[in-house]
Design goal:
Helix content is 11%, strand content 34%. A hairpin with an 8-residue loop joins β15 and β16. It is elongated. It is built from three helices and 19 strands. Strands 1, 3, 6, 7, 10 and 11 form a six-stranded mixed beta sheet that branches. A four-stranded antiparallel beta sheet has the order 12-13-19-14. A four-stranded antiparallel beta sheet has the order 16-15-17-18, with helices on one face. The chain is mostly beta strands and 263 residues long. The longest helix has 14 residues, at 168-181.
Length: 263
């Protein structure tokens, strides 16, 4: 995940011309899924080519976008001081995250780049580290009640369920969000369970819950048939297992229907 503080800096490589200037608004942007999103980027210097890169590894050469090579992406109507700009016709949850504009200057003048964070989540979900999450903290619910609540947020545009965690970095940023936004951080149920087979932890949307460090609190998960539901500890940010009848807040996640979930 790109450090957001770095997104406020124009990174000029050592070989870049001292007179070259990237025209770029590094402010984070919120977008509603299904609407168009303009990513603007210009340069006050002759350049050879430019790219837009997403943190998930996707990379688009702007000249190809302007030529219509990439469906769903197009050139903006106004290219003045925006020669490397692109427009996403219908932004999706998967387009959330860090987008970097890279410009290669003419005559081996080096490279300019800058990054901005796009958050494309439906209300009431909030973008955190590659996903759209809703921290339902106004009431305590059992694990099954929490799942029912999350699923009740489902619409024709997206599916909602208890949250999943895909990486250690994502777990850390979710916990950081909890610590920053709650004066007395609560524990939160998420969508992991071994209720069907003791010790076989899986996500409600499919896939295996990681069992290795540094996800779990020491001596967790416990071999205990009364502790079959996963939560994030408030004090440490680790996974731990609890009784599914415990009453605590929960975290919901927004999913696209085309992500191949086992719904």
């Amino acid at each position: 995940m790109v450090n957001i503080s770095c997104a406020l800096l124009i990174i000029v490589l050592a070989l870049a011309s001292a007179d070259a200037t990237l025209i770029f608004d590094a402010s984070d942007v919120k977008a509603t899924p299904g609407t168009s999103l303009a990513l603007s980027c210009g340069v006050k210097e002759d350049f050879r080519l430019c790219f837009w890169d997403h943190e998930d590894g996707r990379s688009f050469q702007v000249e190809d976008v302007h030529a219509g090579v990439h469906p769903g992406l197009r050139a903006p109507e106004d290219l003045i001081d925006n020669q490397c700009g692109v427009v996403i016709d219908s932004v999706s949850v998967e387009d959330s995250g860090a987008w970097t504009c890279r410009v290669f200057l003419a005559d081996n003048g080096g490279e300019l780049r800058n990054t901005k964070i796009v958050a494309a989540c439906h209300d009431p979900f909030t973008y955190v580290s590659g996903g759209c999450f809703y921290f339902h903290s106004t009431e305590g619910l059992s694990w099954s009640q929490g799942r029912d609540y999350c699923q009740s947020l489902t619409t024709s545009e997206y599916y909602s369920d208890l949250a999943t965690v895909q990486s250690c970095d994502q777990l850390g940023e979710i916990w950081q969000h909890i610590v920053i936004n709650y004066e007395n951080p609560p524990m939160f149920f998420i969508g992991g369970t071994d209720v069907n087979e003791e010790g076989n932890w899986h996500w409600v949307t499919g896939g295996t819950v990681p069992r290795s460090a540094p996800f779990w609190y020491p001596r967790h998960p416990q071999v205990d048939t009364t502790r079959n539901c996963l939560y994030i500890q408030a004090a440490s940010g680790y996974f731990a297992d609890a009784s599914c009848s415990s009453v605590i807040p929960c975290i919901c996640e927004e999913f696209s229907y085309d992500t191949g979930l086992e719904l």
